[in-house]
Predict the 3D structure of the following.
Amino acid sequence: MRAHAEGKARSVADEAGERPVLGVDTAVVLGDAVLGKPKGEGEAVDMLTRLSGQTHVVVSGLCLLAPGWQVVDHAETHVKFRELTPRDVARYVATEEWRSRAGAYAIQSRGAALVERIEGDYLNVVGLPAAVLIGHLSARYPGAYNVG
C-alpha cells in the first residue's frame, strides 16, 4: 500500500509545482488475502461473503510529497463484520456501493450496517488515514494543528 500511495503521489507531483501532494491507497486484508476493488458483482458477493463474521484489517498507505521532503507511512484499522445472510449480501450489492471500494464496502454509507465494530481510525476505513496525516503535518509544522 505504501508503494502504491507513493506512486499515486509521484504521478501528479510534477503538475503540482510547489504545492504538496498526497497519495493514498487502501486495501482490505483478511488473513493472507488482500481484497482490493472487486471487478464485478460476483467478486463483490464473494468478498462480502468472506468478510461475514470475520475481523479484517484495513491498511492504507500514505505518501505526502512536498518540495524538499516526503513522508511515506501507513495505518491499520481492525474491522469486524457481523454475520451476514445471503439476503444481506444481495441487498448491499444491489446498492452498487461496492463499486471502486476495497473489500467491496463503504463504511461511511450503507456499508456501516455490515460492521459490528472497529478498532482504530474510522477515517482510515473511509480511505484517508487522517490520524497519521495530521501527525506528520503537525510534526512538520508545529503549532499549525493545535486544537483550541
Notes: The mean pLDDT is 94.
